[in-house]
Design brief:
Aminopeptidase; eight-stranded mixed β-sheet; 6 helices; 8 strands; 36% helix
Length: 178
Amino acid sequence: MELRKITKEEYGRCKALFTEAFPPEERLPFFLVNGAARRGRADFWCLYEAEKWVGIAYVICHKDLAYLFYFAIDAEQRGGGHGSAALAELKRQYAGRRLFLAIEQLDPAAENYAQRLSRHAFYERCGFHDIPHKLKEATVIYSLMGTGGAVQPEEYIELFDAFLGRFIRRLIDTRLIE
């Protein structure tokens, strides 16, 4: 698996996957995501396996934290081990940092509970473990999983302030909760 920074040529397919993989309430406007990466506030990776584009990963870093904010494998490429290979490469890329991500809560009443269980098990197989806090992003509350240790609420605030700025973070209401 190879991580390559997004280029102008890949912009269209990356935006299409971003839009397909994440519902509107779970995604920032793509121009903000791409712009922050262009300004060096995040790493926007295109995932390649044997010269074939298979997906995207978007990582926000601050101090020793690396937040895998968006991660998606192209629908036609899913189930072929690309996700596991990409996560292994991301763990190598961000070695020495606490790498974490947000997933849907394991709510038995959720319509897609089986899918949530499957995703959780996938991340566990890839070496991620539950982190005690929850993440509130706008109106959605997520569970956290990571490697390298827990993330504290004040560290998350610093990370997001460095990413988009304090003003925008307050507009979005993103924070760790108990």
